[in-house]
Amino acid sequence: MTTSDHSGSGRVHTPVDHRTAVAAETARFVATVKNTDLATPVPTCPGWTLADLVKHTGSVQRWFSAVLRARVQERPRTREVDLRLPDQESGYAEWLDESATVAADTFAATDPNLPMWAWGADQHARFWARRMLFETLLHRADAEIALGLRPAIDRSVAVDGIDEFLSNLPLATSFAPTVANLRGADKTIAFRTTDGDDAWLVRLRPDDFGLDMTRPTADTADATVRGTAADLLLLVYGRLPHASETFTHEGDEHLLAHWFANSAF
Question: Which residue of 98, 108, 236, 242 has the fewest CB atoms within a 10 Å radius of its CB?
């Protein structure tokens, strides 16, 4: 079982079984897109349709599974993998469901504590299960938004996802180059949940940025954003604008604008 009750930030949260959650999120994704028009545009992924979204998510699951099976110890030089993609889009939903089975079989054969290469902070096999979960969850949410539905996200999973995002973001510059712009003269941003007591403090320094181990207090940060854990997860991933009435924020608005303009993942 791959669970997480902590992260690189040192915070303790309700354990999340990432491998089981991948299967559950995929099932929800499949149920969302089954019998729908896969040509439907996805507003949160400009230029994509539901078909593109399904293909991307299943491809990621299969590529991550290939990385785990290979026990890679250095950055892979190719992303090529046998996708077994059906010829007709009518088979995409079933194919996505099968992708989760490929992932589940791989998880079952892999020690989550196995040391291996990962692009993020946690250099173990468990990184990939956790990363796969949030790739799947966010794109399931994208599909629901495209169909006019409001995504429902389990609070403990959302908290884990915020932590995972903020822990790994400083290492994402290879595919998210604007992240390198997230610097500042010792400026801090706090993210706080309104449906719990979870909080994260990000410190921007002249040369880099990262999670601060200090728990933010009411007057710690230069800027603070508050919302439910589910909404904050959608916020950090750019699925909700920080100016939305869903959130309250105080402090340096220019700092917040700078963060959200450069933290796209």
Answer: 108
